[in-house]
Write a structure and sequence with these properties.
about 250 residues, alpha+beta, transmembrane helix, SIMPL domain-containing protein, transmembrane, membrane, 26kDa_periplasmic_antigen
């Protein structure tokens, strides 16, 4: 501000106002004012894991049956494999397997490349055609697993794998295990709380882990079994596990 251009009365007013403000600032009891305290606090909590498990009898037996062949003629190789797969599929359906439980797993058609020499040079020459067709089969009555394995062993399939056992639907079991896993976590958290002179409050967070249900897979070399006897199979059970991570408030 250029004071030289202000009228005398205006200058006196500005100076007077400034003096008053300075006096008030000096005389005002600033120290007697309670401004309060700014503090940072965190919520006390404890985080623990919980687990629950249960064994359930297996409900489904899964198999894989395939036919593979080589032939100089692509068409003959395909026809041979198709005929054998059709025969296997019919036999499985006659056994009582629903069409919805039979599915093509893999189909491959390719021509081998043979190495040949012309003089000192190595070259590739088209070889035989290889055709492979594999189907998967799900059996819902595991008591008949041995019978189906025996059927597949004599079906003309060049490779058979299985059965692998599993549980068809684990949703209801998982719901039950989830509650048990949370209770397991609460029990652990309560021990920790009491040991530190605290008590548990509300659940602050729950993180659900995956469901683990490993099952054994039986792979038999059916081709070496010969023609006698049945394939021994035991369905067994599957151990289902549920894990959670829970954070509890501490009071």
């Amino acid at each position: 501000m250029n004071f030289s251009k202000l009228p005398l009365q205006a200058m006196i007013l500005v100076l007077f106002t400034t003096v008053i403000i300075l006096l008030l600032s000096y005389l005002f009891p600033w120290r007697n004012i309670n401004w309060g305290n700014l503090t940072y606090s965190y919520q006390k909590s404890v985080t623990v894991s919980g687990m629950s498990e249960k064994k359930e009898a297996n409900q489904v037996a899964s198999y894989s049956a395939g036919v593979s062949t080589y032939n100089d003629s692509k068409e003959k190789a395909i026809a041979e494999v198709n005929d054998k797969i059709s025969a296997i599929t019919k036999a499985v359906k006659d056994f009582g397997i629903a069409e919805t439980d039979i599915q093509t797993q893999n189909l491959s058609i390719y021509q081998n490349q043979d190495y040949v020499y012309e003089g000192d040079r190595q070259k590739y020459k088209p070889g035989q055609w290889n055709v492979l067709n594999t189907v998967t089969i799900n059996l819902k009555d595991v008591k008949r697993a041995s019978d189906l394995a025996t059927l597949l062993a004599g079906s003309g399939a060049t490779n058979v794998y299985g059965p692998s056992f599993s549980i068809e639907d684990t949703k209801e079991i998982e719901k039950s295990l989830l509650g048990e896993a949370i209770n397991d976590a609460r029990s652990k958290a309560d021990i920790i709380a009491r040991s530190s002179g605290k008590r548990l409050g509300e659940v602050l967070n729950v993180a659900e882990g995956g469901t683990s249900s490993p099952y054994p897979v039986l792979k038999a070399d059916y081709g070496r079994m010969g023609g006698g006897g049945s394939v021994p199979v035991e369905p067994g059970s599957t151990n289902i596990q549920k894990t959670v991570t829970v954070t509890f408030e501490l009071k």
